[in-house]
Amino acid sequence: MSEIDLMAAVTRLEAAMGALRGRLRERLAVSGSDLTVLQFVARAEAAERTVRVKDLASHLGMSGPAVTGTVDRLERAGHLCRVPNPDDGRSRFIELTPETERAYASAMDSTNEHLHELLSSFTDRERAKYVRVIDRVIEALEFGAPTP
Questions:
Q1: Would you tell me which of 6, 15, 30, 82 could form a disulfide with 92, CB atoms 3.0–4.6 Å apart?
Q2: Facing residues of 83 across strands?
Q3: CA atoms within 13 A of residue 65's CA, in its CB half-sphere
Q4: What's the pLDDT tens digit per position in 83-100?
């Protein structure tokens, strides 16, 4: 397989990811940055993990106050809700509202099922290699990006 074949595969992956994000943005009526927040929360919920503002801030590379403003806006729009942390009454977890959860699942169609089927067919060693390859591709893409 040539370098051209590999670059073509990366281009197809970018196009598929762009189409998926476009479908999700349209269905949920959100911006790209808001979609990133909703996707993070949805993936965490699928993995039965909780999400706090600091988790989002770390993931997005933003300050806590900036993330809080985004969460506030998405909460007012009916996409997110805050629920009490049973172990710490001072903090709250961030969750998708049931309506957004349904709309997200509908927009994803059978994408999650296909991805789960594919990834569950990998051995632990293959998964580790896959993650390393993805990380290297991301690094190459980010390294080539102009600095702001």
A1: 82
A2: 93
A3: 0
A4: 999 888 888 999 999 999
